[in-house]
Amino acid sequence: STIVAPDPRAAVPRLAATIHRHPARDLRLVGITGTLGKTSTALLVQSALAASGVQVGVIGSLGVRIQGRVADTGMTTPDAPAIHRALRMMVDAGVTIAALEVTSHAIALRRVAGLSFGVGALTNLVPDEHLDFHGTAGHYLRTKARFFDMLADGAPLVVNHDDPRVRTLVTEAGVERRRPVVTVSAAGDPGAAVAVTGLRTDAAGSAFALELRTPLPSVDGVEVARGAVPLVLPVLGGHQVANAALAAVVALIAGASPTGITESVAELAPIRRRMEIVRHASPIVLDDTVGNPRALEAVFASIDAIPHDGLQIAFGIRGSRGAAINRRLARTLAELLRRAGRPARLIVTASEDAAGPRDRVRPEERDTVLQVLREEGIAFNYESTLAEAVRRTLAATSGGDLVLLLGAQGMDRAAEIARALLATAPGRAAPRAGAVPAFPPPRPPYTLNDFI
Question: Which pLDDT value is given to residue 40?
Fold first, then answer.
């Protein structure tokens, strides 16, 4: 039969919830939004809650994660039928808390309509992200602000205090009049409710204390007392400190124990394509899904902690996202290379052999990146395929080089290609078995059907 609805986007979430017997009613939902850091934050929340004895699932860019299994959905926030189906599977598996990455697309397209989040988190805001979809920065910010209305009555919102755009959006929306707002500062701002203190950072990661300056609300109604939570984060990058701090506060509010948080963070495996060192032996290889200039800057700010003489870079053009974002990425990359202070060799690729239908590089996107790099006086070579770009990048390395595999979805297979080439290259040591565990596997081995 056919159902005719005047507003299909509004009807589909209600229908999906009904078909799957309203699974969200049997779960505590944690919603995580923001431009950058959603995935790292969601996985850190999952790990902290699991280490505290809580059954938790995740829906995000790395798939639906339930009790150690991963099902690929192809989107950070999938459509409403996939969401409610996954939530039903979680309920049937005994999960009590579900963490969801909530994108601006999902809000605008009402994929998450009808969900009520018991805890919310806002990582940061880069207004010029996804202008191909939103059209203007103002529309993007207004869309993000709609997330506040998806929080349950009185549900706390945890926010990045160090981002002025976050502070402005929260203030202008009057969020503090309706619910507790917990501010978290990785910079140690004295005005934040929670702050990072005693930060020490090197190539192995970071160590710091998370200072709870005021009691925090919790979903159980029992306040989390003032104190300090010691954290050792074995993941490279200052931005990951901010993600870990935010995630730890969300986890505390959602029911994790301080001990569980400390243990889970210390045991955190590298997160796939998030400042992931995929090879520790020479040449060191780092993989990151830089999707905008701020993420690119974070990578270059972090690699100073890794000893290296030169840079060998494979950079993937961001496909099907428009010329504007690629122009900004190319200009930022050019500026960062000028400031690097080390020799650098750049290979640019359109990943024609690896990009999926939604991530194929359009001619205008390719031409924009190449033109900007030429205008900026940056020497580079162009390869249409990812396999050849990675091969040429590795072929030019010397013992003191750091290899950077940078780019969004079109670069997803770059690390896999690099591992295979380095394992068979004459005169190079193969990667140590188990030295860098993949988290999660490069290709999730399950689909949603496998959970049934």
Answer: 93
Q: List Cα–Cα distances, 415 to 11, 27, 161, 399, in angstroms.
A: 41, 36, 34, 19
219 and 320 share a domain? no
Query: For residue 427, what are the contacts with CB-CB under 8 A and spacing of at least 6?
Result: none
User: How many distinct structural domains can be found in the chain?
Assistant: 2
* Alpha-carbon span 221 to 446, nearest angstrom: 37
Residue 381, SS3 per DSSP: strand
Q: Say yes or no: 345 and 223 in one domain.
A: no
Q: Are 90 and 54 in contact (CB under 8 A)?
A: no
Query: Residue 65's beta-bridge partner residues?
Result: 58, 70
Q: What is the pLDDT of residue 242?
A: 96
Q: Which residues contact 309 (CB under 8 A, 6 or more apart)?
A: 342, 343, 398, 400, 401
Question: Which ranges in 70-152 belong to alpha helices (H)?
Answer: 80-92, 104-108, 131-134, 137-145
Q: What is the dihedral of CA 164, 165, 168, 172, to 10 degrees?
A: -170
Nearest Cα neighbor of 61 from 119, 29, 101, 104 is 101
pLDDT at site 445: 39
Of 245, 269, 293, at which residue does a domain stop?
269
Question: Which pLDDT score is estimated for 114?
Answer: 96
- Which residues contact residue 222 at a Cβ distance below 8 angstroms, ignoring those fewer than 6 apart? none
Instruction: Tell me the per-residue pLDDT of 283-299, one tens digit each, with 9 for 90 and over.
Output: 999 999 998 898 999 99
Cis bond leading into 440, ω under 30°?
A: yes
- Positions in the chain short of pLDDT 70: 425-452
Domain encompassing residue 291: 276-424
449: its two tokens: 């059907």
Assess contact for 57 and 64: CB atoms under 8 A.
Answer: yes
> CA-to-CA distance for 173 and 347, rounded, in angstroms?
44
- Pairing mode, if any, of strands 194-202 and 205-212? antiparallel
pLDDT digits (tens, 9 = 90+) for 13-67: 999 999 999 999 999 999 999 999 999 999 999 999 999 999 999 999 999 999 9
Q: CA end-to-end span of the chain, whole Å?
A: 25
Which H or E run contains 432? none
